[in-house]
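User: quick one, sequence for these tokens?
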């Protein structure tokens, strides 16, 4: 008999089985090292082959991984109780804030017995719901969803998107509201940025992503979309993201351009449609956030130019350049402007004050008109309505209060509930406390702790800590069925407000991006230390969770301090930071993270990239990576490669890959699917945090 040497795969599997007999071995993964030399430094990648999603070997590997994951989760008792808790909070009526067009209201709504929301019309605020488009009938597996994209100013035409699974791309469809039917004129599948009908309803302006660069075009109803006229963007390259919006009076076309998606560099252009005038540059060198709307021929602009906490300025459309801007809502030293709405002759300004939402009212001349009372420490949407209207609508929710949509009388200032969620969450049984820690460079970093009343600093709590910290995005107190179920099952939830977000203005964002990205991770780690040293929980009772940029966050946290955590939920994550920009739309994120093609940026990306900083001999916590094929934003290759690499290193604590071939980044799951997938996540947490006894 001829003997053969053991392969790397066979040897590692044998060792794992021998040394950790009590831990089932994951499916073996072939090792094929690829070496890249970046700036004279060799970078080894043993699982480069897993980047090819469609390769038969990759598909077989994914199927084996998912089977292994479910075999482990099936061992965890109490799933029926978990599903029941999730169903209680998920199978409830939902509704969006309406788009107001005269007396007509357009919104998405889902009844408790439905799988996906419908698009719904009310002819008046107190009228009956009329379903215009139903998603449940579009697919047998209920993975198709619809979204409201745009409505003409007279409420007679509607544009909506049809999305399959969780992909970002939509099929754009047009709908005749009076006739209650789709129009024959449809648009190709893609990522759309701004769809806005012209005043005469002969067509609409839109921007759609393309590899060569996104462009603003005009589509005339009934024409071939391939012949749509180019309006803006020729020659600007692939890194810009434009959007188009027609003013309420139909005269002006506002074009906003984002350079990348970090939100810190936007440009604004204006076109007089009535005179068919040229495109006029309003601002293109400010390197600041710019959000614009119009009242008549007056531009109203929210910006952080010269104001890190944001201000609101006005300018005549005929002289719109920054030299002519006049401030109507000045920057506040202790609150950050998040949203500006022009409704009923007033300027409604949503602000965050220490991560708590406030809604303030101003006149066009800057006169302060007080504050709209809100029920607590939560989040709100901007006020929806029309400049000449008599009422507006906004939504409020918090960690412990399901969504309520308020109908706001613009004349009296009275707000009363227009719609309340039917979610049966016992709000009075829970409390929300806000704390803060001092992090790197002395930054004061706040966080919320949500728990059943009477919780104690006795080390017995099972804690789920979550964060994001990027892209100028604020993490605020909002209701979530998943969080509600976690609380219902006895857990404590902690939400961190990290640098990189917009909770405290542009300076807060810049202090957690590019070369400062480690500050985001430091903030998270310092909150972790506070939870442990204050006795909120023990290490084995602490889990962390994050998705997308938050997936990068928890990936960095567990590789930098694996000793702090009992379990990790890493969802739709970025993990290989030297190659992330090569895939899908990730090149738009270079302004936020940097690129390994630049030597200086390569150094800081290499220093924290989770995939590159895994080390043999280190005991990492239990991890479940969550992703899916339909993620067209963050490539699932990150989760595949990271899972493989950690499985090769982590013999004692399980590393699982939860991989769904029909879901992705942008949601779109049916209610049933959402409940079952979230049950998998909660079962993993209950198992690894020792909330239940799991048989061998």
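Assistant:
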């Amino acid at each position: 008999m001829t003997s053969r040497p053991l392969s790397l795969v066979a040897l590692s599997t044998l060792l794992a089985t021998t040394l950790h007999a009590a831990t089932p071995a994951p499916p073996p993964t072939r090792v094929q090292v690829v070496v890249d030399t970046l700036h004279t430094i060799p970078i080894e990648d043993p699982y480069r082959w897993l980047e090819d999603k469609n390769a038969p070997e990759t598909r077989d590997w994914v199927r084996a991984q998912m089977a292994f994951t479910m075999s482990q989760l099936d061992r965890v008792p109490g799933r029926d109780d978990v599903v029941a808790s999730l169903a209680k909070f998920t199978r409830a009526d939902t509704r969006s804030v309406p788009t107001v067009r005269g007396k007509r209201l357009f919104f998405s709504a889902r009844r408790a017995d439905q799988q996906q929301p419908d698009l719904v019309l009310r002819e008046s605020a107190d009228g009956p719901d009329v379903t215009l488009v139903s998603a449940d009938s579009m697919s047998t597996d209920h993975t198709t969803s619809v979204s409201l994209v745009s409505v003409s100013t007279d409420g007679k035409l509607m544009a909506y998107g049809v999305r399959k699974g969780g992909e970002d791309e939509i099929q754009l469809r047009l709908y005749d509201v009076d006739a209650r039917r789709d129009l024959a004129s449809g648009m190709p599948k893609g990522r759309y940025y701004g769809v806005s009908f012209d005043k005469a309803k002969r067509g609409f302006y839109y921007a759609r992503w393309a590899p060569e660069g996104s462009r603003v075009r005009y589509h005339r109803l009934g024409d071939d979309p391939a012949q749509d006229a180019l309006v803006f963007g020729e020659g600007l390259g692939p890194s810009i993201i434009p959007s188009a919006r027609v003013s309420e009076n139909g005269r002006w076309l506002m074009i906003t351009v984002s350079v990348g998606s970090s939100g810190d560099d936007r440009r604004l252009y204006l076109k007089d449609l009535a005179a068919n005038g040229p495109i006029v540059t309003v601002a293109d060198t400010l390197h600041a956030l710019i959000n614009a709307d119009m009242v008549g021929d007056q531009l109203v602009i929210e910006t952080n130019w010269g104001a890190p906490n944001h201000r609101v300025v006005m300018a005549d459309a005929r002289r719109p350049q920054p030299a002519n801007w006049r401030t109507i809502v000045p920057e506040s030293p202790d609150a950050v402007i998040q949203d500006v709405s022009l409704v009923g002759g007033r300027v409604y300004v949503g602000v965050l004050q220490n991560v708590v939402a406030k809604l303030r009212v101003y006149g066009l001349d800057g006169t302060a008109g007080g504050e709209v009372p809100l029920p607590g420490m939560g989040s709100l949407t901007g006020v929806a309505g029309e400049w000449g209207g008599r009422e507006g609508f906004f939504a409020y929710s918090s960690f412990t209060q399901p969504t309520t949509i308020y109908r706001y009388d613009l004349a009296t200032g009275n707000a009363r509930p227009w719609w309340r969620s039917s979610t049966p969450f016992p709000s009075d049984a829970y409390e929300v406390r806000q704390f803060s820690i001092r992090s790197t460079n002395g930054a004061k970093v706040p966080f919320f702790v949500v728990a059943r009343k009477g919780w104690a600093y006795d080390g017995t709590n099972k804690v789920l800590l979550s964060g994001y910290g990027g892209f100028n995005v604020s993490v605020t107190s909002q209701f979530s069925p998943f969080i509600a179920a976690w609380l219902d099952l006895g857990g404590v939830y902690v939400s961190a407000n990290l640098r990189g977000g917009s909770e405290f203005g542009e300076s807060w964002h810049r202090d957690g991006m590019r070369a400062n990205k480690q500050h985001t991770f430091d903030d998270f780690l310092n909150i972790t230390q506070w939870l442990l040293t204050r006795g909120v929980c023990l290490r084995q009772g602490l889990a962390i969770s994050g998705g997308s940029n938050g997936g990068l966050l928890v990936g960095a946290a567990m590789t930098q301090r694996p000793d702090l955590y009992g379990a990790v939920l890493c969802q739709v994550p970025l993990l290989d930071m030297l190659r992330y920009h090569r895939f899908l739309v990730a090149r738009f994120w270079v302004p936020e993270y940097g690129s390994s093609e630049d030597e200086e940026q390569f150094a800081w990306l290499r220093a924290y990239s989770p995939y590159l900083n895994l080390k043999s001999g280190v005991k990492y916590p239990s991890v479940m990576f969550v992703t899916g094929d339909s993620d067209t934003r963050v490539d699932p290759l990150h989760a595949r490669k990271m899972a493989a690499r950690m499985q090769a290193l982590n013999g004692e604590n399980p590393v699982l890959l939860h991989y769904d071939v029909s879901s992705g980044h942008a949601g779109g799951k049916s209610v049933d699917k959402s409940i079952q997938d979230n049950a998998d996540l909660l079962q993993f947490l209950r198992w690894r945090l020792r909330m239940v006894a799991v048989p061998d």
